[in-house]
Amino acid sequence: MRFGLVHRVMTDALAVLGILALLASGQFGPWVSGSLIGGLVIALLIRDVWEKYPALKHFDAITLIGVLALQIGRLLFDPNANVLDVVIEFAAALQIIRLATRKGAAHDQQVIVLALLHLISGTVLGGGLGYGLCFLGVIIVAPGALVLSHLRREVEGNYRQGARDRTGLPVDVPRILRSRRVVGRTFLGVTCLLSVPIFVFTALLFVLFPRVGLSLLLLNRGHSGRVIGFSGRVDLGEVGVLRSDPTLVMRIEMPNLPDPPPARIPLHLRGAALDAYDGRTWTQSESWKRAAENEAGIVPIDDRWPDSALDPVMRIDLEPIDPPVMFLPPYASGLRLRTRATVAPEPQAMAFKGPEGELRYQPIDDRGIKYDVFLSRKKTPSFRKLPSGERWKYLTLPRNMSVRIRELAAEWTKESTTSLERARAIENHLRTDYRYDLASPSGKDPQPLDHFLFESKRGHCEFYSTAMAIMLRTLDVPTRNVTGFVGGSYNRFGRFYAVRQGDAHSWVEAWIDEYGWLTFDPTPPADAAPKSEIVGVWAYLRDLIEATSQRWDRHVVSYDLSQQVGLLNSLTSRYRRGGSKGTDGPRGRAGLLVVAAIVATAGGAALWMRRKKQRAAAASRAADPRSASAVLATALYESLDAAMGARGVGRSPSVPPLRHAQALVSMSHPLAEEVLELTEIYIAARFGGVTISDEDRRSFERRVKSIRQPERPSQQAMTLPAS
């Protein structure tokens, strides 16, 4: 594998993961996200273009200044611009500019630093499952990218300092980047395995470090990606298109489910109720909000307190929604907001009451809200109050209502004697005599309700609920129109019901004197049911991803002090039980077997890798007949190097062998010629492929020995001749 290519791929991967960690938060709009992705793709495709065109030498600085000016202009002239969002967008743009114009290892290190900063920013913006996958990828890629970046920086640093290789030639950086000998599979495997201890250390810090509230960061702000909620106004004929939106709104865990649980379940989760209809639009005749009663975290419904010890509990995890409405089933007796336990003071969500029994919450961040709903054991309706002074507003009819609507209501209920029977009769007629249609033409008619009942006879849920509410009012039965979610589809992996934006629905609450406000749904049952797929490959993958996302949100994003204490208590109690029983029990033996299996697997893998390395080395020696002479030549020159050191003409490690020999020749050193000849023999065998025979080896060794220990003149030669 080529060193330069592997380094570039790992650096690019780290940069991509950093930007994806930002985009996974959903904080940025489609235009910003699309621009970042497009710019990232272009930057990755550009390779060393800027160095070829002198005119583009300062392109990076000019582009950076332009982006900075644009972001400052947004802060100055856009009242909706958020400082944090603008800064993070600028950091992402800075990464793209650096990727497109990088020149050498110094810029690559800047890319790595920016990627790590993006990863940190992603924890503030979202921290969802997408961020978790990016985080895992960064942990795997970062060690290798950092090591390779350091190696490349060292190579380029030696080149700038004029270092030369063993042949005396200057360091050739492009040749090293093209080399396949610097980086191998073992190197990449070992560097990537460094992610294991890093991940373990990070996980321990996460589990053991005390939880600190996000509010300390002072980053609470609006969220551009909130799903559509239910406000105090519904224009007939416009809301039906929500049935085609698969966006997840909430996850619901139901108590006392049968085995197996039903694939779909009708819940009629009430969001907003509207009492005034003008012939086309439903609105709330009152507009107010006040803090709901709260005792020990429990909020009563319609001033009726639940029995928290006996009433079944429905758990709801609601995604960020705008307006921030909380949804309740028809038989709710109270709710409890789930709070976050942290070391530092953390603001908690508060519940507020509105008109028609509406409940809202005060958002404190972009994580939605989690709450428990207490269900009445006797199926008592949630709302059982209707003051006599307010009865009239639930009987008010639009001024321009057609007379034949009143006549049709009387005809359908002519055999009914009670309010409940009249409601059932109208509900049944609408369910059986009319057809569900999201594209009903009645919405464009000046009299949409009249057109639906007598002309088109097809429409979506708002037409059905409006028809039933108005027809009951003509029969002196108080009614109001309700918007919310009809139900959800069961997730086989997470064991919860997933409610989607497409499950938005409209139905009727009618006041029945003996019972209170009862729920009626005149939409045909097959069309009112949740629409998401429950079979097939797509449904299987969707359920798996959503269940994984739920667990990530619950055990990572929402991990707080109470979960931390519970986990530590669980580990402590398990350790005590294990210590008292020893390892004689089945669990102890199973644990020892698991440990033994892990050790045996690791030992076998290490032995296999060692044998593979030995076989590869043997094959390399057999495949290259010159390698033996090259190794021998290196050993012989090392002995020559030691001999020169003994004679006081040692070679500096930074000086190539040939240059050192030539320097001795230029100084006319007595050993120069001998050293030069031996050095040339070494270079020819080491780099030229010349084979060294046994006779050549012995000759080389004798000559080195003579350099180290020169022969001394004989005694006769030193004796003066006689006179």
From TrEMBL:
Q: Quote the biased-composition stretches of kind Basic and acidic residues, using this chain's numbering.
A: 702-711
Asked if the keyword Transmembrane belongs to this entry, the reply reads yes
Compositionally biased residues, Polar residues: 712-723
| Chain spans, region Disordered | 702-723
Sequence intervals crossing the membrane: 28-46, 135-151, 187-209, 590-609
In Swiss-Prot or TrEMBL terms, this protein is called: DUF3488 and transglutaminase-like domain-containing protein
From the broadest rank down, the organism's phylogenetic lineage runs: Bacteria, Pseudomonadati, Myxococcota, Polyangia, Polyangiales
All copies of the Transglutaminase-like domain together span: 453-524
Superkingdom to which the source organism belongs? Bacteria
Query: Which SMART domains does this one have?
Result: TGc
Keyword list (alphabetical) reads: Membrane, Transmembrane, Transmembrane helix
Q: Which organism is it from?
A: Polyangium mundeleinium
Which InterPro entries does this chain map to?
Bact_TGase-like, Papain-like_cys_pep_sf, TgpA-like_C, TgpA_N, Transglutaminase-like
